Amino acid sequence: MRSTAGGLLALFVLSALATAAEPNLRNVNVRGLQVGGTTTLTVEGDDLGTAPRLLLPFAAKQDRKPGATAQQATFDVTLAADVAPGYYNLRMATDGGVSSPVVIGVDRLPQRPFAAETAVVPVALHGPAVGSSAVETKFPGKAGQKVLVEVEAQRLGSKLRPVIHLYNSKRLQLAWTWGKPALDGDARLEATLPSDGEYTVAVHDTEYGPPGVSFFRLKIGQWSFVDGVFPPVVAKGKQTVELLGPAAPPRVDVDAVQAPATLLLPWPKEGTWSGPRPTVTVSAHREIVGQSTAGKAQDLPAGPVGVCGRLLTPFEEDRYRVPVTPGSKVRFEVFAERLGSPLDATLVVRNDAGAALAQVEDTPGSLDPILEYAVPDKVTSILVGVVDAQGRGGPKAVYRLVVEPQAAGPEKKSFRLFTSAQRVGVPVGGRSVVPVGVERHGYQGSITLSANGLPPGVKLEGTTIPAGADGTLVTVVRDASPGDAAITTWRGRAEDGQEQIVVVKGHPLERLQPWLAEELPVAPTTGKAAEFQVDWRGLPADAGLVAAGKLLLPVKLTRPTSPSVVRLALVTSELPPLVNNQPDLTKSLRQEKPVELAATATDGEVTLLLPPELTSPGYDVTVQAELLSADKRTVLATAFAPVKRLAVRPSLILTVEGNGRIEAKLDPKTGATVPVKGKVERREGLTGEVALTLTGLPPGAHADPVTVKAGATEFTVNVVLPPNVPVGEVKGLKLSGTAAPDAKQPNIRVRSREVEVTLVVMAAK
Hints:
Layout: H1 5-12, E1 24-28, E2 32-34, E3 38-46, E4 53-55, E5 61-64, E6 72-78, E7 86-94, E8 97-98, E9 102-107, E10 111-113, E11 123-128, E12 135-141, E13 146-152, E14 162-167, E15 173-178, E16 187-192, E17 197-205, E18 215-221, E19 228-230, E20 233-234, E21 237-244, E22 251-256, E23 261-264, E24 279-282, E25 286-289, E26 298-299, E27 305-310, E28 317-323, E29 329-335, E30 345-350, E31 356-360, E32 370-374, E33 381-388, E34 398-405, E35 414-419, E36 424-428, E37 431-441, E38 447-452, E39 458-461, E40 464-465, E41 471-478, E42 486-494, E43 499-504, E44 520-528, E45 533-536, E46 550-558, E47 566-572, E48 578-579, E49 582-583, E50 590-591, E51 595-597, E52 603-609, E53 618-628, E54 635-640, E55 644-647, E56 652-656, E57 661-666, E58 672-682, E59 690-695, E60 702-703, E61 706-708, E62 714-721, E63 728-739, E64 750-751, E65 755-763
Parallel strand pairs: 2-9, 10-11, 20-24, 25-27, 26-28, 35-43, 36-44, 57-65
Antiparallel strand pairs: 1-3, 3-6, 4-7, 5-6, 7-8, 7-9, 11-18, 12-17, 13-16, 13-18, 14-15, 14-17, 19-21, 21-22, 23-24, 27-34, 28-33, 29-32, 29-34, 30-31, 30-33, 35-37, 37-41, 38-40, 38-42, 39-41, 42-43, 42-44, 45-46, 46-52, 47-51, 47-53, 48-49, 50-52, 53-54, 53-55, 56-58, 58-62, 59-61, 59-63, ...
């Protein structure tokens, strides 16, 4: 696979830079809101303007207090009683645009800034953990009172690794805990207070030095919470699931209509609920609930199936009988840690007598086991066991076993969509550019993008990701219609009907609460596009991309009269390859050097350097122009040239006689030598030697590399087959060629596209 989203983030980051006066949030003193109540919170940042407002995904009454400045604003925020508890994105909207999000907790607890004492519980206290010291607060307690103490930090995007201590009035420790994987690194303790008096809660980082921003939300008192759902995965249709957490787990009804999808569950009507919103995943294939009993295996149906179960006692094993096809392969995968379960599972394959045939525990990066099992001849069923390896069984020890027969045939084709943009600001008559990348898993067709909830007068252009392409640069344009900032959701539809939502990469809750990473705010801004624009200047209509070459991107500016410098930057739709999880710039489309235009300049150019290998049929390209302040520290305005979709122009093309289908007559004693003949075509100034390589040969066969001399076009690659090659079609052979565009740099070589070759092996008569 070419790359993952990490590469896209690195090269697309330019597109997400601030436009003129776009607000930036540095801190929110209270990262929570009270359902059915009023919360006072203060926002600190830059470029908050004269009339900032909070942008929330639900209705809220907000009153901005007098005295707001461009660096600080205070709000009284009142929520209705029907707002669902959970985690949400909070953003700041101004006339200059919208900020990046901060994650807040919403529930019925009173929300207060952290203080040394709190008179009433339950309460949610908000503050930072600074340096190596612990922060403490006191609260009054009664004998026999049950108390929960919980820190939400990493689940809100903080770097704090919390440890909680609970002390009595004599400073004797009653309880303590540190972060747990089931809480995504956050901490919770439960205690029964022994006497009336004053109690102290202390919070600090595990290593007394948080590795970054270290805010937290400390909850003290009593409330209801959900640590999981059983079953965590359901099939389409109506069913009932259990919420794990309370002593008497409530049940809620689910009506799943679309798969695959993540489905938000309703909170029960009774109780003061707090924490992340419970969800279930909707599966595209059959799902059942395990009913395994000790000493007896449960029969599973044939075909792909998921089975959800619980290991209620320590070191328990659930066994399932799986129908299999002799000589086939079956993939088994257990989900436990990845579901937030405390279970450390072992996966065991047994024969009918119960003897272990194969066993696996962890996989790289996870405690969850995965096993591909080759079914022996004459075997039509096997036993699969899920074992509690560490004695952590209990009501929350949930797992999901997925059984997938690896049948021959077309691979499952899917894709994921993502963007690095966290917000979009569009001035009247102007445009912005949003990169959308695709991570392909077998699906190579085109994808059409759309957006829900766009503000009035805003539309999208360039919404098609071409077949085989890395992504697209979507142009967001706006007319003169008035409108406020809106939270939009973007999705892509494939040719085969598959749909996926575009995810904002890098969101702190992308895994825990994935719908929060599906919000992309679009904000009409007051900036006038006519005052600052960038357009192409003489870019040829037939401009294309040639591997290992250069392309000059000339632009012209329309700019206000000012002493400001303009910085030009390249933006492309490429997914660059990764090395050690970092973009490999030597193999990526990149800008040759930084470009700044003096205050009076209106013409400029960016030089695009192209790597030796271009794997996509084409790429979108634009130039971003930033109008800088006199000290070059602030971006006063941003503009984009119209996006150009540039095709890749190959410099080396291979063709094989017979459309790549070659017949081979096999001698039972000596095998065969099969000539693969064809031609090379050199373009775009390529003139030198071409080195040919044939890969994918069957065991025992070989083909020596061939060099096509400069000036020659025809070639023959001899494939030597051993006599034991089976008669029939031998597929999967790939012929490719490389050549050096510059004889002075022989190590820089362009590569042709691979040509599929099929050998038709026939017995000699």
